[in-house]
Amino acid sequence: MSAPPRTSRFLRWGFRRYVLGGFPFGKGMLARAFHAVRLLEPLPEGLDEEEPSERRAFYLNHPGWWDPLAAAALAERLRPGRVPVAPIDADVLRAAPVLGWLGVFGVERDAAGRATAAGAKTFLRTARAALDDPGCDLWLTPEGTFASPDARPLRFAPGLGRLVSRDSELVCVPVAVRYDFWTERRPELLLAVGAPVRLGDVEGDRARRSAAAGDAPVNAGECSRFLEGRLEATLDALTVASASRDPARFRSIGRGASRPSDSSPGS
């Protein structure tokens, strides 16, 4: 029987302070790099009131290096007290084993960046163990490699679809991420949360589209395509909101020190 990664409460506390700010680091890493961290409103109905024991996976697009830190900021806002458990390339974890104490687990990949057969088994086993633990949530970037937030269609590795196809109680939450310049010297870190996905949503979508499917269970590929579509819709909404450059459409969940020098000349 597998278990989620063994973590260090002290190191997780230090990592949150380093990323989000607070003693002993002062201004956090995100505040130093971004003008603001903004979450698109409104959030999906009921997201803040979910059952504490709910099995929940958050899946993000993967535009850049900052994604794990963006996820950390959102996890602190949406699920404080939960341990975010996330897969990473096993080679990266071997090079920086301290990441394992933060909730990261390694997945073996081949030269093309795809999970090996052993890596896929490790992912499924450890992800299920994390979801079974009431103190953990699963966070992942199923694209697997960096990709523009404007690229379409999204294409996911099969792991998340396999989890959904075999777990009717799993709730998957799409999270869109963008790093856009508005009117300040530093970029905005923009986040949007889409409507949660359950296996029943995939089944209902197939029933509406094709009566020929009958009672056959949905497969991992169907789940992946539905999850991709839900994240694409969330990304599209975030892109439109970002283009407006209207901070009133967002909730600030982190901000650096505002200084006149941050503004563009003439603003």
From TrEMBL:
Limits of the Phospholipid/glycerol acyltransferase domain: 56-180
InterPro entries xrefs: Plipid/glycerol_acylTrfase
Record keyword Membrane present: no
Pfam families recorded: Acyltransferase (PF01553)
Keyword field: Acyltransferase, Transferase
Listed GO MF terms: acyltransferase activity
CDD domains per record: LPLAT
UniProt-recorded name of the protein: Acyltransferase
